[in-house]
Amino acid sequence: xxxxxxxxxxxxxxxxxxxxxxxxxxxxxxxxxxxxxxxxxxxxxxxxxxxxxxxxxxxxxxxxxxxxxxxxxxxxxxxxxxxxxxxxxxxxxxxxxxxxxxxxxxxxxxxxxxxxxxxxxxxxxxxxxxxxxxxxxxxxxxxxxxxxxxxxxxxxxxxxxxxxxxxxxxxxxxxxxxxxxxxxxxxxxxxxxxxxxxxxxxxxxxxxxxxxxxxxxxxxxxxxxxxxxxxxxxxxxxxxxxxxxxxxxxxxxxxxxxxxxxxxxxxxxxxxxxxxxxxxxxxxxxxxxxxxxxxxxxxxx
Length: 301
Hints:
Blueprint: H1 2-13, E1 25-30, E2 37-40, E3 44-50, E4 52-57, E5 60-65, E6 68-72, E7 77-84, E8 91-97, H2 100-109, E9 126-130, H3 133-144, H4 149-168, H5 173-179, H6 185-198, H7 206-213, H8 217-228, H9 232-250, H10 255-261, H11 267-278, H12 282-285, H13 289-292
Antiparallel strand pairs: 1-8, 2-7, 3-6, 3-8, 4-5, 4-7, 6-9
């Protein structure tokens, strides 16, 4: 019942840039199964109403379809694409940005015993579950407000809080709850992820990043691997290659310069690792990048 109305609302309000009149809410409508593309996940809830999607993080592969949701708790480099999408039966999805401050506020307001206890170690950064009716109901009511401008400013924040509460107390609540805990293992790893993203072009020692995160080297490495499905060095490589591909979209004739800007001193190594990641050397891949590269702002996980 909820999925039928959800599909109707998503089709009605889909825009080319995937944005909506409600802050933090995105709508995807995709009518073809393009090749996988690399992007940053953001920290989001994504619900599929029609079609299916496949997402890869390191060696992990997540598949989810109509009636299922995916949550991401750390901004991670993922490769994904819709596997079921045609003009007659487009893939339809709802997205909501998850704000750590909003999670923290709900955790503070919750009564003792209302929220399950979280484990001490960091959970995976991505998880998939079947969407319960109470969650789908709240998503539908939020999207109905796109047709009710007078009520939107007052009611949208309330319904967004309800959706967040359903996530916090739901099957994947452990992932979402750690977003709002300042001293959680996930928050320490998120700090390291941000540092690597901001300094991806420079070499680093794992020991130094572990210290920055406030963790021992062994605990840092173990938790980083759990959250991101990669080692810190592999994560850096993913960020470097993703940034290189974005740069090549505007500098297709400067392969060596792009490689150096993202941290590769050896052009051969850059070309080899780029080809391993994207299936073609930089010179060949650059030709079609203006059409195929998508930014995180226009893509849902």
